[in-house]
Write a structure and sequence with these properties.
about 500 residues; alpha+beta; Methyltransferase, Cobalt-precorrin-4 Transmethylase, Domain 2; Heat Shock Protein 90; Arc Repressor Mutant, subunit A; 6-stranded mixed β-sheet; 17 helices; about 35% helix; about 20% strand
């Protein structure tokens, strides 16, 4: 980006401290510039303006920043380049065009545009000390990274990902046999002629990089990928005590309910990634509309929105940094949105991700195992697929946030318009005809999938038998279906129609 007076004034008007740092710098480069250089490079980039004084107690942007200028621009620019190319910093990530002298209000200032460093180059640090010289940025300014944050950046710089690491002392006895059996059944159905189907369990896992042998020491065992995907709950919790998986359904709450459903480790399931995905995904997508569609004699239940949620779920898993302290893979369901969070920050700038850019997954072996059974799209199509599906549904734009202060990525998928009144789906079976009462019942069930016959009858001011009769017709036409028992079950709407 070319740096000019207009660009600088726009940055000052926004006054966003996370991407803007102003320093007086009359005659020399301030020492604190280098902390900001490291912090911007390790976060999302930003502007350093030398010759601008910031009055931090002033809330009005027009008064907060005062152009003072520098006395000798050429000297300051030369000194800056000499230092950035010295051992003061471990790497110079700037181009010549990133440092410019700009005339503003009759004064000269020096503008330094620091880009976000490539994930393979992080951390950017000072004084040859990676643990004491690494900084990041927040709205309060520059701060020292913790040892855990530095280690996370070092892990991320590995092109091979994190999940090939040998989990010493963890072997086949730490595999949950049922999880592996279920996965191999899915794999066989999706890849019927694959030679791996003939392998025994250990060789099968080795083919995926889920089991490995250290060639130097001869030690063998599960990799992180194998333990994450198929490990027993005890082994996963023992080796990855900082990491947990959590699902909370806060939709359809009644009264003072805190949540409608929750899945966390309670000793009743083996809390590995494969079991978490299989148990949570159906719950997470249960309220998404499933238009009634036929391909010949086969019912087609999948939709672009279901595919998009699978993609988002897969992304949360494969990009999770399970070694971060307090890391949580959390899936939350609300009436108006679906939210997915994973530990670890984004490796790419958000704009590049929206444009379809991709970086290597932190857990590429897990990614491959999931892809082989139908989870995850081709390289580069993932996030655009999600955006396209949500645009098609008219549910608002997904919001991706890089919560650096929490070492967490959050994706929120709005669903507030996902009601029966929202859209007419052109693929609805033309033979399905609903009368006025049935359409009203359908609208109620979209709003409340737990509605009883009595509640519907009261809302429509009709007899219970009228509701019962119309619901039976709708069930026969596959417009709705009952999931679960009469007392604790719910209604699932199968189609979307205009009312």
């Amino acid at each position: 980006m070319h740096i000019d007076e207009k660009t600088i004034k726009q940055a000052l008007q926004k006054g966003e401290r996370v991407t803007l740092e102003c320093k007086l710098a009359k005659t020399e480069v301030p020492k604190s510039v280098w902390e900001t250089y490291s912090a911007f490079a390790n976060t999302i980039g930003g502007f350093i303006l030398l010759g601008v004084e910031e009055h931090k107690k002033e809330t009005d942007p027009a008064k907060r920043f005062e152009i003072k200028g520098v006395d000798n621009c050429q000297k300051i620019v030369t000194d800056f380049w000499n230092t950035v190319n010295s051992e003061k910093v471990n790497e110079n990530i700037l181009l010549d065009s990133d440092v410019e002298t700009v005339n503003m209000d009759g004064a000269q200032i020096v503008c330094i545009q620091v880009p976000q460093a490539d994930w393979r180059a992080k951390p950017i640090y000072l004084n040859s000390n990676v643990y004491k010289g690494t900084y990041r940025r927040n709205n309060e300014g520059d701060y020292h990274c913790t040892e855990a944050q530095v280690k996370a950046m070092i892990r991320d710089a590995n092109d091979e990902g994190n999940d090939g690491l040998l989990m010493r002392l963890y072997g086949m006895e730490d595999i949950d046999e049922e999880s592996l059996r279920q996965y191999r059944t899915e794999f066989r159905m999706a890849n019927q002629d694959h030679v791996w189907n003939k392998y025994d369990d250990k060789k099968f896992l080795k083919s995926f990089g889920a089991y490995t042998i250290d060639k130097e020491t001869g030690e063998e065992g599960l990799t992180l990928a194998g333990l994450l995907m198929f490990g027993t709950g005890l082994a996963v919790r023992e080796r990855l005590s900082n990491f947990r998986m959590d699902y909370v359904d806060m939709s359809h709450l009644v009264g003072d309910e805190r949540y409608h459903d929750r899945l966390t480790y309670d000793g009743r399931w083996e809390n590995n990634v494969y079991q978490f995905l299989n148990r949570v995904l159906p719950k997470f997508t249960s309220d998404l509309p499933r238009p009634f569609r036929m391909d010949g004699l086969k019912r087609i239940d999948d939709t672009p929105q279901h595919k998009a949620v699978r993609e988002a779920f897969t992304n949360a898993i494969i990009h999770a940094d399970v070694f971060l302290p307090g890391g949580v893979l959390r899936i939350d369901k609300y009436d108006d949105r679906l939210v997915l969070r994973n530990p670890g920050t984004l490796r790419l700038p958000i704009k590049k991700i929206y444009d379809g850019g991709t970086s290597r997954a932190r857990n590429p072996r897990v990614q491959n195992m999931l892809r082989m059974i139908g989870y995850g799209e081709n390289l580069g199509s993932g996030f655009p697929l999600i955006l396209s599906a949500w645009k098609e549904a008219g549910w608002g734009e997904p919001v991706l946030e890089n919560k650096i202060e929490l070492d967490e990525v959050e994706l929120a998928l709005p669903v507030e318009n996902a009601t029966v009144n929202a859209t007419v789906n052109a693929t609805v079976n033309a033979t399905v005809k609903l009368n006025k009462t049935q359409k009203k019942i359908l609208a109620i069930l979209h709003e409340n999938r737990h509605a009883t016959y009595e509640e519907i009858a009261k809302q429509l001011n009709v007899e219970r038998t009228t509701v019962w009769r119309n619901i039976n017709v709708m069930k026969k036409e596959n417009v709705i279906k009952r999931v679960g028992g009469d007392k604790n079950g719910s209604w699932e709407v199968q189609i979307v129609v205009e009312i």
